[in-house]
Design goal:
With about 500 residues, the chain is mainly α. Helices cover about 80% and strands about 0% of the residues. It has one domain (about 1-494): Amino acid/polyamine transporter I (Up-down Bundle), CATH 1.20.1740. The chain has helices spanning about 5-25, 30-65, 85-95, 100-105, 105-115, 125-140, 140-160, 175-180, 180-215, 225-245, 245-270, 275-290, 290-295, 305-310, 310-330, 340-370, 375-380, 385-390, 395-425, 440-494.
C-alpha cells in the first residue's frame, strides 16, 4: 500500500501543512492581525501582476482553441472520451464552480451596489445595478475559467500525450527538474495551493450553512457549530472519495446539477421574471462591451482596498484552485480535442455563471429597488446570511432555505472529495495506467486534512484568514503557471 505513495512529496507537504497548523494554533491571538498584514502586502505589491496574468491566460486560451493545435486529441488520435458530455459538464460545474456561486451569488452584486467607492455621486439605480453585475461577471466569468483551462490542458497534454505522471513538475524541463528536490518543490507548491484553496471553500461553506441554520432557528450560530458542520462535510466527502470517481463523485455531481436547475427555476418563476430577463440581457451585453476596461482596471489612482478584497482575492482564489480543478478536469477529459476541451472548460461554465448570477443577482437587486437597504444592510453585517435573507421574500421560504442548505452541502462535499482525490493523485507514485485510482490511504489522509485546515483557519481569523490563505498560496502558483503555459506552447510547436 505505502509503495504506491511518493514519500518525498507526501511527507514534505504534510510537514509544511502541519507546521502551519501548529504555529497558528499556538498564536491564535496574533494570527488574525498577521493574516491581514500579509494579504495587504501581497495585494499592494503584486496586484498588477495577478491581473496581467489572468488576462494573459484568457488570450492564450483563445489562441489555442482556434489556432493550429486546436484539433490535437488529448490521448492521441484514437482516444475516445471516457464520460458523456452531460456527465463531463456536470463534474466540471460541481468541482470548479458551485461552491462560490451559492455563497456569493446574492451577496456580491448587492455589496457592489451598496459600495460608494464604485459609483459616481448621484449615479442612477440602473447604472449602479449594471456596474455591479458587470463586476460579478468579471470575477466569475471568462478569466477564472481560462486559468482552469490552461492548467487543466497542461495536466492533460503532458500526461496523456507525453506519458508523464499527473504532476506539476511534468510541465517543465531543464536544470530545475533534473534534480529530485526541484521536481518535488514544484509539486509541493501545487499541493499546498490545492489544500488551502479547498480548505478556504470548506470554511466559507460551513459558515454559510451555520448562518442559514441559525437564521432558520434550527441551530444556534457559533464557532463550535461551524466546526461541527466542517466535520460532517469532511466525513461525507471521505465516504464519497472512498467510493471513487465513477461512483461517489459522479453521482454527487449529477445530483448537484438537478438540484441547481430546480433551485434556479424556482427563483426565476416566482421572482421578478421580466426584470431578471431585462437585466440579464443588458448585463451580458454591457460586460462584453466593457470587458477590456473592466479586466485591466487596477484602481492604480484610487484607494486599492476594494480591489484587494475583491478582484485580486478572486483571481488568487482561481489560481489556488487551478491545480485541483485543472488536474480534475484533465482526469475526466481524456479523448477530447484541445478546441473541445477549452471551449467546454471556459465557455460553458461561464455561460452558466452569467445565467446564475443574472437570475439571483438581479432578483436580489430588485429587492433593493423595491425596498432600499432591505438586503444590503443584512449582507454587509454578515455576508454568510445573504442567501437566506434573500430567500425569505419568496413563497415556501422555509422549504426553499432547506433546499439551499442541501445544495450547499452537496457542493461542498463534492469539492472535498474531488480535492482529496486530486491531492492524492499529486502525492501518489507514478502509475502505468493514468486512469487508476490513487491509493485509498492517501485519499483518506487528504480528506481529513482538508477539514482540519478549514477549522484551523476559521479559528485563526475567520473569513479574513481564509481569504489570506488563498492569496498567499495562489500568487506563487500564478507565477508558476505562466512558465507552465510557455512550456506547453513550446512542446506543442515541436
Amino acid at each position: 500500500m505505502f509503495t504506491k505513495i511518493a514519500p518525498k512529496r507526501f511527507l514534505f507537504s504534510l510537514f509544511l501543512i502541519s507546521t502551519f497548523i501548529g504555529i497558528t494554533l499556538l498564536n491564535l491571538n496574533e494570527a488574525d492581525k498577521l493574516f491581514a498584514e500579509i494579504q495587504k502586502y501581497i495585494s499592494d505589491s503584486l496586484g498588477w501582476l495577478i491581473i496581467l496574468l489572468a488576462n494573459g491566460f484568457l488570450v492564450f486560451v483563445i489562441y489555442l482553441a482556434f489556432g493550429k493545435h486546436k484539433n490535437l486529441v488529448l490521448g492521441g488520435s484514437d482516444a475516445k472520451p471516457e464520460f458523456s458530455n452531460i456527465n463531463w459538464i456536470a463534474m466540471l460545474f460541481s468541482a470548479g464552480l458551485g461552491v462560490g456561486l451559492l455563497f456569493y451569488g446574492v451577496a456580491e452584486p448587492v455589496m457592489h451596489f451598496s459600495s460608494d467607492a464604485l459609483h459616481a455621486e448621484g449615479a442612477s439605480f440602473s447604472d449602479k445595478a449594471n456596474r455591479s453585475m458587470n463586476l460579478a461577471y468579471l470575477h466569475w466569468g471568462f478569466h477564472g475559467w481560462a486559468i482552469y483551462g490552461i492548467v487543466g490542458l497542461c495536466f492533460a497534454y503532458f500526461t496523456y500525450n507525453k506519458n508523464l505522471p499527473f504532476r506539476v513538475s511534468s510541465f517543465f524541463s531543464g536544470p530545475l527538474t533534473k534534480n529530485i528536490w526541484g521536481r518535488v518543490s514544484l509539486d509541493v507548491i501545487a499541493i499546498i495551493a490545492t489544500i488551502f484553496g479547498i480548505a478556504t471553500s470548506l470554511g466559507l461553506g460551513a459558515n454559510q450553512i451555520n448562518s442559514g441554520l441559525g437564521y432558520m432557528d434550527v441551530l444556534e450560530e457559533s464557532f463550535m457549530s461551524t466546526v461541527g458542520i466542517v466535520i460532517v462535510i469532511t466525513l461525507m466527502g471521505l465516504i464519497s472519495v472512498i467510493l471513487g470517481l465513477k461512483v461517489g463523485i459522479k453521482i454527487l455531481s449529477q445530483m448537484n446539477i438537478i438540484l441547481c436547475i430546480i433551485f434556479l427555476s424556482f427563483i426565476f418563476l416566482t421572482g421578478p421574471s421580466s426584470f431578471i430577463l431585462d437585466g440579464l440581457l443588458q448585463n451580458v451585453g454591457s460586460y462584453m462591451q466593457n470587458l477590456l476596461s473592466l479586466s485591466t482596471n487596477t484602481q492604480g489612482y484610487l484607494d486599492s482596498s476594494w480591489q484587494n478584497g475583491w478582484t485580486l482575492y478572486y483571481y488568487s482564489w482561481w489560481f489556488a484552485w487551478s491545480p485541483f480543478v485543472g488536474l480534475f478536469i484533465a482526469r475526466i477529459s481524456y479523448g477530447r480535442s484541445i478546441k473541445e476541451f477549452l471551449i467546454g472548460v471556459v465557455l460553458i461554465p461561464s455561460s452558466i455563471v452569467f445565467l446564475w448570477m443574472g437570475v439571483f443577482g438581479n432578483a436580489a437587486l430588485y429587492q433593493e429597488f423595491i425596498e432600499p437597504n432591505s438586503l444590503s444592510t443584512a449582507i454587509n453585517n454578515n455576508i454568510a446570511v445573504s442567501l437566506f435573507v434573500f430567500l425569505e421574500q419568496f413563497p415556501f421560504s422555509q422549504f426553499v432555505m432547506g433546499l439551499a442548505i442541501v445544495i450547499i452541502l452537496t457542493f461542498f462535499v463534492t469539492s472535498s472529495d474531488s480535492g482529496a482525490l486530486v491531492t492524492s493523485m499529486l502525492t501518489a507514485a507514478k502509475k502505468e495506467n493514468t486512469k487508476d485510482e490513487p491509493p485509498m490511504i492517501l485519499r483518506v489522509i487528504w480528506a481529513i486534512s482538508l477539514g482540519v485546515i478549514a477549522i484551523v483557519l476559521l479559528a485563526g481569523g475567520g473569513i479574513g484568514a481564509l481569504q489570506t490563505s488563498v492569496i498567499v498560496t495562489g500568487v506563487p502558483f500564478a507565477i508558476l503557471v505562466s512558465f507552465a503555459a510557455r512550456s506547453l506552447l513550446k512542446n506543442l510547436n515541436q
